[in-house]
Amino acid sequence: MNNLIRDLRADRGWSQAELADQLGVSRQTVNAIETGRYDPSLPLAFTIARLFALPIEAVFQPE
Amino acid sequence: MNETSTPAFRREFTIAMLAYVVALCLSIYLLQVVRVGGYWRWLVALMPVPPMVMVAVAVMRDLRRIDEMQRKVQFEALALSFAGTALLTFSYGFLENVGFPKLPTFGIWPIMALLWIAGLRVVRRRYR
């Protein structure tokens, strides 16, 4: 899936490590999600959307 | 969180491995120097097993602590190790039938561990 996480993170001035801490995952997981190499589970996708205060469809788009 | 291990895992694993080394040394000393006899030899020979259980518990606890992607990576690496160990040990077993020297069963776990480590390196690269 495509996602806007890198842009959303950059807008807030967060590093990958900072975002990872807020999500309770590893920095490697954040990087893999941003680069599209890993699709998060539904609960994690909702957690990400909630953190950015956006609907989930605004963060993740199908390829 | 660290890619390879959490601080809690490193602590639990280190304590378990230290306990294993102590138990192993004590077991060897009691068997080969003190030369305990009778059924005590069985118990002494099995002294390293409780610390081995501690290592296994440390690994299982870490598998519950890591995040979903790390758990997926571990699963794929363990599957590679499982399949690879089966293929290697059975292949060598067939060769033993045609005269190759019989290897001790102690050799199986190191093969599995090496394939697990190799599997982790291969699988992690896919998510970088």
Question: How would you explain this protein's 3D organization?
Answer:
- The complex is a heterodimer of chains A (63) and B (128).
- Chain A is mostly helical and 63 residues long.
- Chain A contains five helices and two strands.
- Chain A has a two-stranded antiparallel ribbon with strand order 1-2.
- Chain A is globular.
- The model of chain A has no long low-confidence stretch (mean pLDDT 96).
- By secondary structure, chain B is an all-alpha fold.
- Chain B is built from five helices and no strands.
- Chain B is flat, with a radius of gyration of 18 Å.
- The relative contact order of chain B is 0.11.
- The model of chain B has no long low-confidence stretch (mean pLDDT 94).
- The interface between A and B is medium-sized, with 15 and 13 residues.
